[in-house]
Please model this.
Amino acid sequence: MDGNLNALTTVFTEFYYWVTVVFMFLIHVGFCMYEVGASRARNHMHTLMKNIMIIPLVTVTFFFFGWWIYWAFPNFPFWGGLDTEAGAANLPWANTMGTNLGDRITGVFWAAFLLFSWTAASIVSGSVIERIRSSALWVHAVMIGSVWWIIDAAWGWHYGGWMVRILGYHDAYASGVIHAIAGGYALGVIMVLGPRLGKFAKDGTPRDIPPHNPWLLTIGIFLIYTGFWGFYAACNVPVIAPEVIDGQITGVTWTATNIYLAPTTLSAITFNFLMSLSGGLMAAYVISKGDAFWTFSGGLAGIITASAGNDLYHPIQAMIIAAIGVVIVYKLHYWVERKFKLDDAVGAVAVHGYAGVVGLIIAGFVLWGVPSSPYEGYATINPVGQITGAVIMFFVLGFLPGWILAKMQAAAGVLRIPEEVELQGLDYAEHHAYEDAKAAIIEADKQELAARAGAAAK
Amino acid sequence: MSTNGYSSWAVDLAEVGPVYPFQGYEVLMVIIGVAFWIGWHRIQFVREGEHLEKARHTGDEEKVKAQLERY
Model:
């Protein structure tokens, strides 16, 4: 690092991303609490373990190949070859992928993306609780977390990605690149996996399976909100000079930028995060007639809907867009459930998938003609590019890979747990041992009490 | 002798790059890491299959009913 200003900028950026990563950990804590709260007591430990182990499995695979994909795939395979030059410093054996005093940013930048990877996998994990084999889910977690989402990030969430350049794709806070893809992937898996036993009556009427612990679920979603705020900050470059961007911006005014290196401010995204949260909560409260869990999820769906353009929207636009998205998502969730008999245990397909798609499309109209990038020759934001992008995110990179892999697992008999185990619960052995031990110690204490009473009477 | 190439910090930090031990063996470390990851999946997959097969036959009807009541 040469020069005090450069050094200060580097250290600030290093610290900035590190803080966002710590905040984003709360997303995973929230997902774990939400899943456990939504599951029934007989499945709690397995549900928790299924989500917790996403952390190490996605982390190591994101180190081995996920991070390299981001740098090597922006134009691969349709618009150019692998960018091996940019990828070289991000290969798992590169000396920048370790303790290196000449490189202070790769690790924290890698981690910021990695936390998005956990989120993508965790979204899928919630929709399949209480009937998927952990081994099957963990393969899906690696695929969505370290392969498919990071390909979409290279294409549509990279300053040089072909979707940004050619389609004018704009998705500043990941309506599509995280949420639409993960929701689409979850839909592909649950279509093959099937509903939980008892979810549908014989005549096809869906039954509600209420959460075992509504308070855990509530705290879980509030933690997801908190982590999501950190996620917003992580999507920005905190401070950069125009000459470093080396694009069309003139003058010497330093700025924060979005992931495309186009200017925005932390102030803007703070306004818009909170206003879209509010719009989502208010719309969900009305449309669900005050249902607590739909209201909470509506807050999240509202942010997700507005996220594609929250770097540029006016706060009132963010609020209205969030509200519109939530109404569509709510209606679509119940229509799909009734029509296709799908059991999305936590509403992940709706809250993440449908909200992401709706958000991308709305951004195409509201931001029509706005530059997607500071570089010359890029398409501007437009509805066709955004709709095409939504199809790529939800269907091509989300639904299809999830459906195909789940089909292969189902054909091999390794996707779903046996029905007997589903009924008795995945934690049966642990509960059985717990109940037996409890009964034995209570009986022993009673005998001790009786013996003492007998001795005192004599 | 030092495993990372430095036995003193009397250096100009502008000249210093990687400082982790055993530089030059990164590819071997990656191979070991990938084997650890794949091996983990294999062990877990086999164990879960055996556990679920055993669990299919262990449920006591009364105890299962009690579990269902607990919700």
